[in-house]
Structures are given as structure tokens and as C-alpha cells.
């Protein structure tokens, strides 16, 4: 479970420059696997659903997913961004997408005092880790 958490954490981490690098004291996200299912209509692909909670001030490191990733915010406000795109702040009911070629450079809680919770839905290659280091 610890390796799944580390893997999921890597997948959710941003992957570039100073804006994406969390403070060394930033609390790590709490990642839980909800479900993994192969997609028979798409040979070699699977769907993975995770829940992620950013503690107050929590952030991810820069990372990539090599997957289509869909984020849906349940609680709080989060800041997301990919290389070459602009940062967006999302609240409950709002969503974010990143593609297989995107580098996730920003992922953090917008609040220093309140937690934020979101669901991540990944469509990825079977056997590929959910979170990968930057190229």
C-alpha cells in the first residue's frame, strides 16, 4: 500500500521549474486507490480511480502520468497546472484534464488552513505506474 501511495503521489506531482516545486515542509497528499479495471474495448488499457486529499499547505512534486487524467474537486480549492499551460484554481464541482504528454508542474492546496479533496480518474496502460518522474 505504501508503494501504491508513493506511486500515486508521483503521478500527481508537478514536474517543472520553481513554481512547481513544493516547499520541503509542504505536507504530502494522502492518496487512496478506489478501483482499477481493465478496459476490454481498449486492449492494454485500464481505468484507475484515486482519491487525493491535500492537507492544508499540501503539494505534489513535478511529475507526469503518461495517461489521460481527469481531476474532480470534492472539497476545498486546489491549484493545478501543466507545462506550457496556465495555473488554474478549482473548487468543488470543477474539473481539470491532463493528457499523456503533459508534464504536471503544479499541484497544491490553495489553502494553508483547510484540506482539499479530489478524485482522479486515469486511463492508462496496464502495468504502467500512475505517477512517473519527469522525463
What this model shows, in words?
The longest helix is centred in the N-terminal third of the chain and has 11 residues, at 2-12. A 5-stranded antiparallel beta sheet has the order 1-2-9-4-7, covered by helices on one side. It has helices spanning 2-12, 17-20, and strands spanning 30-38, 45-54, 63-64, 67-75, 78-82, 88-90, 95-98, 103-109, 116-125. The radius of gyration is 14 Å and the shape is globular. The two termini are 25 Å apart. It is built from 2 helices and 9 strands, in the order ααβββββββββ. The protein is mainly β.
The strand count comes to 9
Name the beta content range: 35-45%
Helix and strand succession? HHEEEEEEEEE
Task: List the uncertain runs.
Answer: 1-20
Give the SSE layout.
Blueprint: H1 2-12, H2 17-20, E1 30-38, E2 45-54, E3 63-64, E4 67-75, E5 78-82, E6 88-90, E7 95-98, E8 103-109, E9 116-125
Antiparallel strand pairs: 1-2, 2-9, 3-8, 4-7, 4-9, 5-6, 5-8
Key descriptive features of the protein:
mainly beta, disordered N terminus, 135 residues, four-stranded antiparallel beta sheet, single chain, 2 helices
Summarize the structure.
11% of the residues lie in helices and 44% in strands. It is mainly β.
Amino acid at each position: 500500500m505504501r508503494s501504491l501511495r508513493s506511486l500515486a503521489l508521483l503521478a500527481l506531482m508537478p514536474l517543472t521549474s520553481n513554481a512547481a516545486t513544493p516547499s520541503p515542509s509542504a505536507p504530502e497528499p494522502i492518496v487512496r486507490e478506489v478501483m482499477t479495471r481493465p478496459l476490454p474495448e481498449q486492449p492494454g488499457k485500464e481505468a484507475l480511480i484515486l482519491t487525493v486529499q491535500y492537507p492544508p499547505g499540501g503539494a505534489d512534486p513535478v511529475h507526469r502520468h503518461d495517461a489521460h487524467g481527469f481531476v474532480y474537486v470534492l472539497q476545498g480549492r486546489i491549484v493545478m497546472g501543466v507545462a506550457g499551460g496556465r495555473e488554474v484554481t478549482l473548487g468543488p464541482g470543477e474539473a481539470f484534464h491532463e493528457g499523456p504528454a503533459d508534464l504536471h508542474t503544479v499541484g497544491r492546496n490553495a489553502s494553508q488552513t483547510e484540506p482539499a479533496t479530489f478524485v482522479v480518474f486515469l486511463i492508462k496502460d496496464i502495468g504502467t505506474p500512475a505517477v512517473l518522474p519527469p522525463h
